[in-house]
Design a protein that fits this description.
376 residues, Beta-lactamase, alpha+beta, two-stranded antiparallel ribbon, 15% strand
């Protein structure tokens, strides 16, 4: 695998007042600019918002001494309101890190194995989920090396067109009215695109398959398992696959790269990219993920596949930058971008949520976290 390393930004410190007015280089913010962390975050924000396409940003900064939430820009361009620690964002493929954590629990508890034939965890037979005598396994699903297509139904033609103006509507139309039963039915007629374990092919369908396997071995729906095993124990009261009216009232408005309001992800995004969450909730998730004395967390961070620039663990990307281990996972929807970046050796981590999909936003969020860490 060849992934481009993200360059670290050297940004100058920017002096600004609490709730400062917007400028060409600095948006509204609730950053009090008191501590070294405050100032490092603000410096990175100045660089980030030098791209005027960006809309709003919330940063959950977690360190040994506690968590701090910073908000910048606007949650809604029409009303020009600042995001808050309880603003609700789509977290897109960061959802995969939650699914991977549940898979790590299943392995730790002996419900699943990483290398065994994954078909044993499904309620029906799928002879098509093997190629050249190599079956799909949990390890190959978690590392996008299962040979599964990107999506079921097949979305390759939509993505191949590379038209950001039409892609959301086409993808929503492709998935309209579909649920897990449709996915499992069509899975019977899905051909693998390569031998499991041989090469990387990004797959949302692979993580939906993990979700189905977890449901089978635990005998509960994925949403219930997520609630019981992660959300309730961590006190993540605003993280969900289905928005309530109360949470809907706190939603940010997502914008595409053209500055237009964007639609939300399809309702069947599920275990692959279907979660909403808040900066406050993700601070709790980051704190949990930093504790590598927890055997489930340690297992989920252990590399399963190796590349030139980074390794892949249970969904997580693992790399070393100047001798420092960095664990991350990003996501992008039609109008939202996200990143979780962990520095376990420093007991420090970040969740970053943006309500835009400008070109390069997902990578810029990772660079933001790396810049803050370097500036402390």
């Amino acid at each position: 695998m060849h992934r481009r390393r993200l360059a670290l930004i050297a940004a100058a410190m920017c002096a600004t007042a609490f709730m400062s007015p917007p400028s060409a280089a600095h948006p509204p913010s609730d950053n009090p600019l008191h501590t070294p962390m405050d100032k490092a975050v603000d410096a990175a924000a100045t660089a980030y918002f030098s791209d005027s396409c960006h809309t709003g940003l919330s940063i959950s900064a977690v360190a040994a001494e506690g968590a701090r939430i910073y908000n910048y820009g606007v949650a809604d361009r029409k009303r020009s309101i600042l995001p808050t620690a309880d603003s609700v964002y789509e977290i897109a493929s960061v959802t995969k890190s939650f699914t991977a954590s549940l898979a790590a629990m299943a392995v730790h508890e002996g419900k699943m194995t990483l290398e065994g034939d994954f078909r044993r965890y499904l309620s029906s037979t799928y002879p098509n989920l093997a190629a050249d005598d190599h079956p799909v396994t949990l390890a190959t699903l978690l590392t996008h090396r299962s040979g599964m297509p990107r999506d079921i139904p097949d979305s390759d033609a939509i993505f191949a067109a590379k038209n950001p103006r039409t892609l959301p509507a086409q993808l929503l139309a492709l998935n309209r009215g579909r649920d897990e039963s449709d996915f499992l039915r069509d899975l019977h007629h899905t051909a693998l695109q390569g031998q499991p374990g041989k090469e990387e092919r990004y797959s949302n369908a692979g993580f939906l398959l993990i979700g189905a396997g977890l449901e089978h071995v635990y005998r509960v729906p994925y949403a219930s398992l997520l609630q019981e095993r992660i959300l309730t124990p961590l006190g993540m009261t605003s993280t969900t696959l289905t928005l309530s009216p109360k949470l809907t009232s706190r939603q940010v408005i997502g914008y595409d790269q053209f500055g237009e309001p964007a639609p939300q992800h399809p309702a069947n995004a599920g275990a692959a990219w279907g979660l909403w969450s808040t900066p406050n909730d993700l601070a709790r998730f980051v704190r949990w993920q930093l504790d590598e004395t927890n055997p489930v967390i340690a297992l989920s961070h252990k590399p399963l596949a190796h590349g030139d620039d980074e390794d892949i663990a249970m969904a997580w990307h693992v790399e070393s930058l100047n001798g420092l281990k960095v664990i991350s996972h990003g996501g992008g929807s039609f109008g939202a971008s996200s990143q979780i970046v962990l520095f376990p050796q420093r007991d420090q981590g970040f969740a970053l949520l943006a309500n835009d999909t400008c070109k390069g936003t997902e990578g810029a969020l990772k660079t933001f976290a790396l810049t803050v860490e370097r500036g402390l």
